Amino acid sequence: MRDAVIVEAVRSPIGRRKGGLADVHPVDLSATVLTALLDRAGIEPGAVDDVVWGCVGQVGEQAGNIARNAVLASGWPESVPGTTIERQCGSSQQAVHFAAAGIISGQYDIAVAGGVESMTRIPMGSARRVGLGDPNSDAIRRRYEGVEFNQIRGAETLAGRYELSRTWLDEYSLRSHQRAAQAVDDGRFAGEIVPVTLPDGTKFEFDEGIRRATTLDKLGQLDPVLDEDGRVTAGNASQISDGAAALLMMSGERARRLGLTPLARVHTATVIGDDPVTMLAGPIPATARVLDRAGLTLDDIGAFEVNEAFASVVGAWLRATGASEDRVNSLGGAIALGHPLGGSGARLTTTLVHHMRAEGIRYGLQTMCEGGGMANATIFESVAAR
Predict the structure, then answer these.
(1) d(Cα 336, Cα 342) in Å, to the nearest integer?
(2) What are the Thiolase N-terminal domain coordinates in residue numbering (predicted)?
(3) Packing angle of the helix pair 166-185, 311-321 (nearest 10 deg)
(4) Quick check: is 339 catalytic?
(5) Which of 33, 98, 102, 175 sits most deeply, having the most CB atoms within 10 A of its CB?
(6) How many CB atoms lie within 10 A of CB 292?
(7) Which of 141, 129, 37, 29 is nearest to 80 (CA)?
(8) Residue 369 annotated as catalytic
């Protein structure tokens, strides 16, 4: 049977909103990681059958099928196609799923999966502000009469449901920054980050959102976002960011013929729908489903990447699954590194497979919540450990 393996994975440094990547067009940011990906692998661009690219805010500079535009901006042959998909925050994790499915089915020999988001240049929610109507139709409003679709409200609901105090959320967020800072100091991201050349010719090379000087006291001084007695603050939520990531995928047999050593193979992939009001609890049933389909248990997994959309998302997942926090987001997460929506899934995969290789971990699991009450979950297996 054909399988799907990842032979190379790269990402840009993650820029803060209005930070180091603010002047970089998202098409050019995408082209940067695409070019670096194939350069590292030594693959000719014309061999790529398709580029499957995640992007959430598909308006303005990110409209018009940014995947295809990124291919053209990369200077790749015009024969290389590209398609852009949107599954909210899980867009580029879904891109990995689609690319894997195309490879396993024989539709692709070589594919690139990834994604991008410039939240500076295309602010979150831009597609809802262009004056073309409400995406929630009358039928949806009737079904959920009187209900507010609000991710921050969902994060508050999870915190209450799983008895996660404001202190716990802030303590977790502080650990995210500390872990990310330690990862930088230890050179753990050096193998995955590719520098971005800015319009002025300088290089942007480091994740910009890590706050080394933050403390629990500083986090505790931030006001709640919604209610006066709320628990969710800007400090225990993911950062608005700019970034891109890309993965080179093919069958294991093709990798062997090309003399390439895979980082990991896609073992099992799933996506699930859940309550769209709470919205953020999907990673819990998604994890259960992907483990069941893989024939594995939580104890088989050596590393987890659970997207830190909010600290309460990870906290709820930890409480529901019983997983050890030591194995979850051990290099920091979106609270410290940032959450460039359409690029985050591929960023998490990139970090996870490099971490698995560095630590000799056989199985890694990635999951993330998504708008509308969905969640992707993926199990990767180290090829060397098979």
Answers:
(1) 17
(2) 5-252
(3) 100
(4) yes
(5) 33
(6) 12
(7) 37
(8) yes
Compute the average pLDDT of residues 66-73: 98
- 10-68: per-residue pLDDT in tens? 999 999 999 999 999 999 999 999 999 999 999 999 999 999 999 999 999 999 999 99
For the whole prediction, is pTM greater than 0.90? yes
Contacts of 240 (CB under 8 A, 6+ apart): 16, 17, 119, 120, 124, 338, 339
Answer for the pair 275, 373: CB distance below 8 angstroms, yes or no.
Answer: yes
Report which residue type is found at 251: S
Residues 276-304: pLDDT tens digits?
999 999 999 999 999 999 999 999 999 99
The one-letter amino acid code at 205 reads E
Neighbours of 358 (CB within 10 A): 13
CA 19 to chain centre: 20
Catalytic residue, chosen from 55, 97, 177, 369, is 369
Question: How many angstroms separate the most distant Cα atoms in the chain?
Answer: 61
Query: Of 177, 339, 354, 355, which one is the catalytic site residue?
Result: 339
pLDDT in tens, 125-140: 998 888 889 899 999 9
| Active-site entry in 55, 89, 354, 355 | 89
The DSSP symbol for 82 reads: E
Q: What pLDDT score was predicted for residue 13?
A: 98
